[in-house]
Amino acid sequence: MDLLQACAESFERLLPYQYHIIAGRKGKTREFTISFEQADFHHLAGLHKLTDNVRFMTGKRAAIMQEILSGKLTLSQAQKSAFFQQMEPRLRPLAHLEEFLDSNEIIFRYNAKIHMFSVIQADYLLQNEFDGQAVYLFLAQRMGDDTQVCRTFFPKEDKDYAEGQPRYTLLKKEKINRKTGEVIVQYDRLTPKIKKEKDAVSAPD
Q1: How far apart are the first and last CA of the chain?
Q2: pTM for the whole thing?
């Protein structure tokens, strides 16, 4: 399995899930939910940068992800593009996107006007580390939905996208499996400690 296919398989595992996040700053809270669709993978993997490669640029984006999963589209085909180096840095972190989201606690409210050098439009910026390097995940409202889509994802290079952005404190994060209904509380500063302890004592063995 090549790295591009590994990224697609990793992203496919996220499709049944949503992350519900509550964050606060200066006494005010914000809530948002991150959802996943097959078509999202195309931009996250940087495939939109391969403008000289017809196979990656034509057809529905969800179908392109399926072709990567099946092995019809491969990393070696992407490497033939003159622009491959523009997408390559995000692939290794992308294969660990679920781990990034599971462990992330750094949340910024993103204001594009602060960084006039960038064309990225987003509502939130999540920052985490991969192999000792900061990695950015930008979130924006999904069209026709009240959830947030993972808009773009890449390691920090010269530009610090977090600079000047208001940082929020993570208050609660839940990982929800929409198929089974299972809710995993990954972080919780809102539920009083006493209630947590009572729930733990009263839980069946």
Answers
A1: 41
A2: 0.89
